[in-house]
Amino acid sequence: MRELKERILKDGQALNEAVLKVDSFINHQVDPKLMENIGNTFAEKFSNDRITKVVTIESSGIAPSVFTAKAMGVDLVILKKSTSKILDDNIVQTKVASFTKGTEYQLTLNKRYINAEDRVLIIDDFLAQGEAAQGAIRLIEAQGAEVVGIGILIEKAFQPGNKALRDKGYPVYSLARIKSLSNGHIEFLEEE
Ligand code: 5GP
To answer: What is the Å distance from ligand 1's center to 54 Cα?
Structure first.
């Protein structure tokens, strides 16, 4: 997606060889017009897949996912990284390693919001090791639902997440695929 790639080149910052900072338009401050265009792009890409739910992981996946779900006319389910203090025996959890924080968290879903009839599109801001996406897949499939596609804003193609998901047969559609972040320079894979 040209608009996203141009914005990454303009405002993104390669913090080191592995981490891209996009705080000014995705992760801290959010550009809603860009998020809306991203949502429309995902909705169009998966328009023939009879998606019934969009699922994302809090918090940075929420903005683009809201627009995706709105464009598709379906509800959005936000997987939680922390459990509410209000006890609820209706939840399923799976452990996920955080790439950026170097910690682990329990990804949590209330079973009420995904059922065996659902055809799910997962949306997230980044794909790195693929841990977050695979955690989401575990929770969704545990409900008997089907993961029909995975939409990613920024895929770091030099990390193993993309291969891990594609090898398992999940269609991954990334709007910007980064080849390298070496020497503070952001380089995309040549495609389109
Ligand atoms: P994974 O589970 O694929 O290793 O990492 C995905 C999650 O880690 C994303 O949801 C995102 O929040 C975070 N993440 C991974 N790499 C980056 C990065 O380079 N920059 C930022 N801002 N977040 C990242």
So the answer is: 19
